[in-house]
Design brief:
The protein is of the alpha/beta class. Helices cover about 35% and strands about 20% of the residues. The chain is built from 31 helices and 26 strands. Strands 8-12-13-15-14 form a five-stranded mixed β-barrel. It has a five-stranded parallel sheet with strand order 19-22-25-18-26. The longest helix is centred in the first third of the chain and has 19 residues. It is elongated and about 110 Å long.
Length: about 800
């Protein structure tokens, strides 16, 4: 008897189907006869041949051993993979004591409109597959074909989706009403015309499937992603340089006939969409001119779409190379999770993007690549995003109640750098910042503290900047010679997707709500340096280019490092000649710290021993206490920034008199003045005082905070006084304190000086309370001069 495949048309069709890899079945277990699909690309077969093939197919069973029956059609050959996904979603339970069904709870929340994403954690899948025989390689298969299995998991979730539980206040939204109307229209058309506009599953689906990286997925660099990773799930680290606008992306198109009103639903796969142009309904097929189809936007389904440009980090770029970048497509709930300047770990599917149209004739077979984002993890979170548990708050309270917490926090900043105790205190205040205030008339008074470190080469200015960059949650590091005015503020670029002109933020815009560290500040061109004047005071960037007129936020604290005009500080020249910065820029810095490399046998020996210990042991010498870790220091500052201290009225006269005294001292110094004091200096005193109050977790500025702020302003120029050679340097500290108290008493209308007033005056002159105590002990016979002059 002749085999039915040898007759026509069966023989021809079967041979053709066999030539394109019909299907291969592997029986993994003889007792369960589980079927796995390893071939695709099967054409539609005639009904007689399909029935014959179904009769010859064996039964297949689930992993529980239950007989699922025969394959109903060749198009449903992916049932085993779907069964595995269903089995995982229904049976996986957390390893804790609760034993809750994690993904069943997710499906309940999705059904009740409380959730819009199904996040499959591959770590859970790896843990689950280790306990089930025959599932050992399933996580690797999912990672190697992630896009395919995302749709399989979505179909599996649709099959086991629980019914919605209606509450008292729950109502159907417009999507539910529209779907109910579509189902009713489909039933009527099916009864009358025998043609059903079948609704795609994607149209009914109200969630998206995302894969979270497992333990076996290593974090890679942008440069290490190769062509062999196409289709795989990859995780890499990069910096967001450009974030596009969120736009609607067509996922399911609804085409309506203009004659009979028939609806056709067409799922859009990929970037190209070729709509159907003829109505396939039975009513239009009986007419000579068939109806035309037009797109019905209200009945179509759109999702949120955003395109992000991610560049590899500077430390990952090899020597002599330029940074590489990748385009990341973000959809659904992951949109608006990244901002320019964020350092993120992105997990996504590496996919090709072939060129179309005229561009395809130029590129040929070369295709662009992109990442379809599945998970985004920020390496550094902002102060407001830091979540602290009860244990974290207990540790912070333990640090807060210690003695000299202010000094310990400052010494924990770059402990491997010798000395610079007051410089580190100034950097701590820069991290904490003051309070930004907005007045009723719209005027905004900045609270960010700007600091400039100017000094001789080799005093660890750049190392301090680098450490602050790693310590701050949001920071950008750049150099003066390698930065232009456009690179610091914003530039005009053309969007590759829409072709429109868009703005791309520079370093100051990327550091919004963070710190911008500019090294080699003196090497910048004057035209480029003037670009940051508006940023430092108004904290905005105004742009009027290429038809774009807008204002960008640049709420950043500027930390600059520079060398004097002559490379090293020239004592013979005036401070203005050494600093060589315009007064308009100099007045915008709250602290202009001058650091001189002064030779001294004791200090040089101590510095050498410190450096040798760091190189030998790999850690700094003991500080007398355990340095606070960077994470704890960041958490302490984050909690301190939640306070908004204010200056009490009783301190107004004290601050005003201190400011007037600084102005008078500058006038008396003449050409030897070591700074440029303006009304901005008064605001600097307030900002530094508020930052000190924040570190105390207080809601009110105290007199001690004001005295410490005045002391830091005084100490920022103390290195010049040590080498100035004027009359003030000839006195020892005890004599200088006595003369300062005497001069202050002579300038006041009263001849009495209280002890607390004397201590405040001593601290404002740059001396400590201990020195004041020594002064009182040495001059105990003249103590009446301190109490009553």
């Amino acid at each position: 008897m002749e085999h039915p495949y040898n007759s026509q048309p069966f023989g021809y069709v079967f041979r053709q189907a066999y030539m394109i890899r019909f299907v291969i079945f592997k029986f993994l277990h003889e007792e369960s006869r589980v079927v796995r699909l390893t071939g695709f690309g099967i054409p539609d077969l005639p009904s007689d041949l399909r029935q014959h093939r179904e009769a010859m197919l064996p039964d297949y069973k689930s992993d529980k051993g239950e007989t699922l029956g025969k394959f109903k059609s060749v198009a449903r050959l992916t049932v085993p993979e779907s069964e595995r996904c269903i089995f995982f979603l229904k049976t996986y339970s957390c390893g804790d004591e609760s034993g809750r069904r994690k993904y069943e709870d997710m499906l309940v929340d999705i059904s009740n409109r409380k959730r819009e994403s199904l996040e499959i954690d591959l770590a859970d899948l790896e843990e689950f597959c280790l306990t089930i025989e025959g599932y050992e390689n399933f996580p690797e298969i999912v990672q190697s074909n992630a896009r395919r299995y995302a749709s399989i998991f979505a179909e599996a979730a649709d099959d086991i989706m629980p019914r919605r539980i209606f509450g008292v206040s729950d109502e159907d939204d417009s999507f539910d009403v529209l779907m109910r109307q579509r189902d009713q229209i489909g039933v009527e058309i099916n009864e009358n015309i025998n043609v059903s506009p079948e609704l795609p599953d994607v149209l009914r689906r109200r969630f998206r499937v995302y894969f979270k990286p497992g333990t076996k997925i290593a974090v890679r660099t942008v440069r290490s992603i190769r062509a062999a990773d196409i289709g795989h799930l990859v995780t890499f680290t990069g910096v967001c340089t450009r974030v596009g606008d969120v736009k609607p992306l067509l996922e399911v198109a609804c085409l309506t006939c203009d004659c009979c009103g028939f609806e056709i639903y067409q799922e859009v796969i990929g970037d190209n969409f070729n709509p159907i142009n003829r109505c396939p309904s039975g009513a239009c097929s009986l007419r000579a001119p068939t109806g035309e189809l037009f797109l019905e936007t209200r009945a179509s389904k759109f999702i949120k779409f955003q395109e992000v440009k991610v560049q590899e980090r500077s430390e990952d770029v090899p020597v002599g190379h330029i940074p590489r970048s990748l385009t990341v497509q973000v959809k659904g709930g992951l949109t608006r999770t990244m901002r320019p300047g964020d350092v993120v770990d992105i997990t996504g599917i590496f996919l090709p993007k072939p060129s179309t149209g005229f561009k395809a004739r130029q590129t040929g077979l070369v295709a662009d690549t992109y990442i379809e984002a599945m998970a985004v993890k920020h390496q550094k979170t902002g102060y407001s995003d830091i979540l602290m548990s009860a244990d974290d708050m207990t540790n912070l309270w333990h640090h807060h109640q210690q003695q000299d917490m202010y000094g310990k926090l400052a010494q924990s900043i770059a402990p491997e750098i010798y000395g610079h105790a007051d410089v580190k205190k100034a950097l701590l205040l820069l991290l904490c910042g003051g309070v930004t205030r907005e007045l009723r008339d719209g005027i905004r008074i900045r609270g960010d503290v700007h600091v400039c470190l100017m000094g001789d080469p080799g005093v660890a200015k750049s190392q301090l900047l680098k450490h602050i960059t790693t310590l701050a949650p949001r920071s950008v590091y750049t150099t003066g010679r390698g930065s232009s005015g456009v690179g610091l503020t914003a530039s005009i670029q053309r969007d590759t997707t829409t072709g429109e002109m868009i703005l791309e933020g520079g370093a100051l815009v990327l550091a919004d709500n963070g710190i911008c560290c500019i090294d080699e500040f003196d090497k910048m061109e004057e035209s480029d340096r003037t670009a940051i004047h508006e940023v430092m005071e108004q904290q905005t960037v105004s742009i009027a280019k290429a038809g774009i007129t807008t204002t960008l936020n640049a709420r950043t604290a500027v930390l600059a490092a520079a060398n004097p005009a002559y490379g090293r500080y020239n004592i013979a020249a005036s401070p203005q000649e050494n600093i060589n910065l315009p007064a308009a820029l100099l007045s915008r810095f709250d602290l202009m710290w001058l650091i001189l490399d002064v030779a001294g046998s004791e200090s040089d020996v101590a510095l050498a021993q410190h450096v040798l210990h760091v190189h030998k042991e790999g850690k700094p010498p003991g500080l007398g206490f355990e340095p606070i870790a960077s994470s704890q220091l960041r958490a302490y500052v984050a909690h301190a920034r939640t306070f908004s201290p204010h200056v009490p009225v009783e301190l107004s006269n004290y601050i005003a008199s201190a400011y007037a005294e600084i102005r008078q001292d500058e006038i008396d110094a003449g050409e030897k003045a070591m700074g440029y004091t303006t009304a901005r200096t008064l605001l600097s005193i307030l900002r530094l005082s508020e930052a000190l109050a924040r570190l105390r977790w207080a809601d009110q500025v105290s007199e001690g905070d004001v005295n410490e702020a005045l002391r830091l302003i005084k100490m920022s120029k103390i290195s010049l006084e040590d080498t100035a050679g004027d009359d003030t340097s000839k006195f020892d500290p005890i004599t200088a304190i006595y003369m300062a108290i005497r001069d202050w008493a002579d300038a006041q209308p009263t001849s009495e000086v209280r002890y607390d007033q004397a201590v405040a005056l001593v601290i404002s002159k740059g001396y400590t309370v201990e020195v004041c105590t020594i002064f009182i002990n040495d001059f105990c016979d003249f103590f009446s001069l301190v109490c009553i002059l």
